[in-house]
Amino acid sequence: MTGPQRGQRRPQRPHDGSRKSRRKPLDPARRAAFDVLQAVSQRDAYANLALPALLAERGITGRDAAFATELTYGTCRVRGLLDAIIGAAAQREPETIDPVLLDLLRLGSYQLLRTRVEPHAAVSTTVDQAAIEFDSARGGFVNGVLRTISTRDEQSWTAELAPNVDSDPIGHAAFVRAHPRWIAQAFADALGAAAGELDAVLAGDDERPRVHLAARPGALTAAELAAAVDGEVGRYSPYAVYLPGGDPGKLDAVRAGQALVQDEGSQLVARALTLAPVDGDNGRWLDLCAGPGGKTALLAALGAQTGARVTAVEQAPHRAALVAENTRGLGVEVLTADGRESGLEPGFDRVLVDAPCTGLGALRRRPEARWRRVPADIPVLAKLQRELLAAAIGLTRPGGVVLYATCSPHLAETVGVVADALRRHPVRALDTRELFAPVDALGDGPHVQLWPHRHGTDAMFAAALQVI
Questions:
Q1: 4 or 204: which carries more pLDDT confidence?
Q2: Which of 113, 353, 407, 417 is catalytic?
Q3: Which positions fall inside the SAM-dependent MTase RsmB/NOP-type domain (predicted)?
Q4: Per-residue confidence (pLDDT) for residue 262, from 0 to 100
């Protein structure tokens, strides 16, 4: 009979007084973090969805919940940096290490390098779990790697392993800030002359973003919402409120549909479409990529003040259902269809194309996303974006406006898509910056690029095009 294959766990043995039987399993907080890391690695789960559900299921609260959150999100964010250090300490490529052991090593390494956990506790808890999952030999391997890592701090490891800052400044910044190099390069390209801000952009992805709420126009004002939730009125959007903490889903205003959780950048995008100059607006508005419906709801609430009606198109049935839920009572017509072939009658006055994208502008909200996306995703998405924008232009009447938006600053998804539309279709670019007042530091235009480190929002891109 052969032994377990690579990645396969050995069956648990009954208590026999051996050293292995005396191993202590992970405490609830570390166990939760480890299980979410496994779900992310093996099932492509989203940590920001998996962890809260797991904590609730297991009744983990208070300090344990906070510790589990720090371990999970922190380990996901800096996975590439941890893998480089683990590989150096193990003297082998991380990809050759059993994936279960690798997640355990990441968890232990993060504690050693980024927390105040005592090194002995970080090492011993991880080694014990490796022995429980596999055997003492694997536990010994984990012990050796973590003890090697513990002999130096993160700065020392980085000084040895990072690309040279003089010959490869972007590669160095990417390594130090735990981003794939191609993403750091994309951000530097989008910053252009302001590429000196790259380190601030990358650092911003590691900061926990504040929760933003949008007060629904016609239901209550931002000042009223801020007073009700003990929040702070936003800097730019007239509907924005910054929440100091807590679960926004439990707020009365959110539960009653008077407010929704929405990044201020997204609020500004929806508002910009309503501010674009359109002669003889007949109130026929369209959201061509509507799911899950946050921008649609804001558009519909604003449109209701002038008699405009919004049609929302969403291809995925479950996301179309979310659009219907988020816009209940606002008179939105929800159509489940591919935005490229919606079958709608042309002649819309205002059309929003919040196109599917890499989401590189919201990496701070999705800790594992920076390692999940790959450069090969870009051409596929850019093709889809060009097709959706072309369809939107075809559905817009002469004199009407299309607002193209992405939550990504990658040039192939932003100015590249817009440039293609300007070449191929009867449209002209509007100065989108005027539609985002009072936001400052928007660059040379005519498009708009928001940045977390400048504006406190997701890195939303927007370009307004008028159909000729």
A1: 204
A2: 407
A3: 187-468
A4: 97
Q: Strand 461-467 vs strand 396-406: parallel, antiparallel, or unpaired? A: antiparallel
The phi, psi pair for 354, rounded to 5°, reads -90, 85
357 belongs to the catalytic site: no
Q: Give Cα separations from 388 to 178, 314, 329, 383, 399 (angstroms).
A: 33, 12, 28, 9, 19
pLDDT digits (tens, 9 = 90+) for 306-326: 999 999 999 999 999 999 999
Q: Which residues pair with 286 in a beta bridge?
A: 311, 351
Length of the chain, in residues? 468
What is the bridge-based pairing of β-strands 333-336 and 309-314? parallel
Q: Known binding site: residues?
A: 289-295, 314, 338, 354
Nearest to 213 by CA among 267, 250, 273, 275: 267
Q: Detail the residues annotated as belonging to a binding site for S-adenosyl-L-methionine.
A: 289-295, 314, 338, 354
How many helices (H) and strands (E) would you count in the chain? 20, 12
Contacts of 246 (CB under 8 A, 6+ apart): none
- Paired strand residues for 449: 461
In this structure, the dihedral spanned by the alpha carbons of residues 176, 177, 178 and 180, taken in order and rounded to 10 degrees, is -100
Q: Is the dihedral of CA 57, 62, 64, 65 positive or negative?
A: positive
Residue 240, strand partner residues:
214
Q: Which two tokens stand for residue 312?
A: 């929302």
